[in-house]
Amino acid sequence: MSFYEAAGVSLGKAEAIVERLRAAVASTGGQVGGFAGLYPLDEERLLAATTDGVGTKLILSRRAGRLYDAGRDLAAHCIDDVLTTGAEPLFFLDYVASDSLDLEDVAQLVEGAAAVCREAGCAILGGETAELPGIYREGELDFAGTCVGLVRRGDLIDGSRCAPGDVLLGLASSGLHTNGFTLVRRLVGEHDFDADLLLAPHRLYVEEVRELRTRADVKALAHVTGGGILGNVPRVLPAGVVAEIDWESWERPPVFEWLARHVEEEELRRVFNLGIGYCAVVADPGERLVIGRIA
């Protein structure tokens, strides 16, 4: 059993759930994507939509008094997912739940999300709050959101054109982003921790992706979330094509040096982004950071 599984999270179970539900989703006419689902508006345009949560990072964020940054985490995570399709984010909705809601906690979360949405040009249309004693234990808090974007069919990025000889670009992460925190919390326990090291907000990639698309033929985009590079890049590659990663091609942020003192390298690669938060497949890398090749 891996350290992550011992901490209470099974990546294999998450993958099995997605596969189990795929047929049910398809029966409704929905199109499940690697990071965002697609819905055709008309012959020219598709909606791209995704839902996610901050996860157990919220527990440490609350302990450190950084719920504003947790709000940023949620909006950035959802918007970054939508971007992988080539879509521009349109709007965002949030959901806050607890055994007993605290006004200041909710305000910090939503204000943080709003700050990221302003940066991305994405409107917040509203959301929902819920007090659920008996479902949530005392002091527990959850924050989830949905982002919807719009993409023209001619601008859709779906990975279907990826081919051997293409290169994999890496865009730097700010740190852990919003994944792997069940394992991190097990390491931290009830002790004090370095919030700057562990809780750096999830990076928003809107501007970098927009700039990259003006200068390169982007064939695929992958958001490196739970499962790391190994678990997320294959989600956007066609059958018969694989990514070969050069793990020495970039410098890892200090937080991963701390983790490496407690977690084996193989598991680090399967759980964390290790300093690369977003990947792009292109034919010509120019001067950008190449972290692998398509074979």
Can you offer a commentary on this structure?
By secondary structure, the chain is an alpha+beta fold. The chain is built from eleven helices and ten strands. Helix 4 (67-83) packs parallel to helix 5. It is globular.
Count of beta strands: 10
Taking all residues together, what is the mean pLDDT? 93
**Helical content, roughly?**
25-40%
Shape: globular
Query: Could you name the ranges where pLDDT drops below 50 across 5 or more consecutive residues?
Result: none
Summed up, what is this model?
By secondary structure, the protein is an alpha+beta fold.
What's the SSE blueprint?
Layout: H1 3-7, H2 11-26, E1 37-40, E2 45-53, H3 57-63, H4 67-83, E3 88-98, H5 103-120, E4 123-131, E5 141-152, E6 167-172, H6 181-188, H7 195-198, H8 206-215, E7 218-223, H9 228-232, E8 243-245, H10 254-260, H11 265-271, E9 276-282, E10 290-294
Parallel strand pairs: 3-4
Antiparallel strand pairs: 1-2, 2-5, 3-5, 6-9, 6-10, 7-9, 8-10
Helix pairs in contact: 4-5
